[in-house]
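In response to a reviewer's request, we include the raw inputs and outputs for one of the modeled complexes. The two entities were modeled together in a single run.
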Amino acid sequence: MESARILPSFAMNEIQIETFLRRAPSPAVPSDLRQALLADVRLPNARGTSAASVSTAPLWRRWFPALSFGLLFLGCLIVLGVQTFQVLDLRRERDGLQVATVKLEELRHENLELQRLRSALQDNERLRRDGDELAKLRAEVAELRAQAQEFTRLRAENQHLRTEHDAMLMQAGVAPADDPFTKAKEKALATGCINNLKQIGLAARIWANEHKTNLLPVDWITMKNELTTPKILTCPGDTARIKAASWDQFDGSSVSYEFPSAAPDERDPYTVYSRCSVHGFVGLTDGSAQSGIKPDQFQQVDGNLKLRNNATKGTKP
Amino acid sequence: MRPTSQQIITMSDPATKLCERAQAGDMEAASELVVQFYERLYAWFRRLTGHEQDAADLTQKTFSKVWISLGSYQSRSSFSTWLHGIGYHVYVDWRRRNAPTEQASDEWWLHCADQAPGPAETAADREQAQQVYSLVEQLDEDTRQTVHLHYYQGLSIAETADVLDIATSTVKYRLREAVQFLRTKTAEPRLGVR
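The model returned the following structure tokens for the whole complex.
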């Protein structure tokens, strides 16, 4: 049976203590440790057993450092050579560009001279054309002058012939009104008047159609868009009036026609719409123009001038 | 440049010559170094760790680092000092990764004393020795390391200072403190079990 007890103390001096410490026992070493340590020996530059492994290493692995350096050096040489060739090429290009620059200056001067000459040539050509045009104009002026002189001569001759003609008619006892030339002229003027009335009637019907009404306008300005020109408002036989060239110049003084009806209705074809103050020709609301109608064939109905039913309609000059 | 006195000493050291041969790739020299030093190294780690397997592992790690670092050995110190320096760092790394080791028990030292021949010629001597060895394990870590290297491993004060990377005066101070501690403790009455 174990029991606790006070053990005696061993008071020692330093020498005794150091003696014990220096002679401390060594523990037993495991038997396999030595073999394990010897097997683990790995030397960086091992000879003998490890030399075999070096010799069995592939040839390329042993020569790899030298080969890699050689390849690197060769690559550097190639790059250097390529760069040298590129530098030489660039220098050649630079020299060529310098020569081209000098030539470019010369070409620029030549180009300027060429442009100046071209401009002068164009001026010369233009002057030549102007000269030709001037010569042509001069020829035309001369021709016109000759024609004017001829015209003056013909007019004088015409006047002379007219005088002789009138004298001969007087000697023959023929009135000027029976003169066939005068009749033809008056007929032409009457035809023009009829045409004007027809155009006025047509314009009025167009206006009524556009405004969806049966009543025709009794004002020239109202239907000026349908009337192509104010010239048709002047009768060719009305020598007292001057035709208005445009609506800007129109002031009513050039009008030879009048509206005899207050409210002309296009549904009533006997209603007179317009009337020439020179010839007495009338335009009806159906767009036709009538001539040669005697005054007693008209009648006034509700403010409108109408043809009588027995009046001959459709007579034209 | 003339070699220093320390270098002259190490150049005449047989272990240093073996080391130079091993640096040149001589496997036999390397094996001879193992044979010469592995028991001392194992005993050191065995005393420090208190376990056989840990001591064997640390011994193998130390020699592995020796072969890796062999090219950097420049004979400025003896091979033994250089080897203990590597072993010290291996032990410190191991101690950081592992929990603090159990101190070697009294029975272990008695067991060792029984097996190994030494001064314990009498039962009283064996008991005194066992008490001293047990008290050494109660020292603080630095002082304990210093005692192990100087007394147990047989390194000189200068070599111990090299291994621990401290001044020789520090080594002397620690040794004096340790002996004083052991003197004081051995003079005190102690409680035993019978």
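As requested, we also summarize the result in words. The domain at 1-102 of chain B is CATH 1.10.1740.10 (Rna Polymerase Sigma Factor; Chain: A). The mean pLDDT of chain B is 82.
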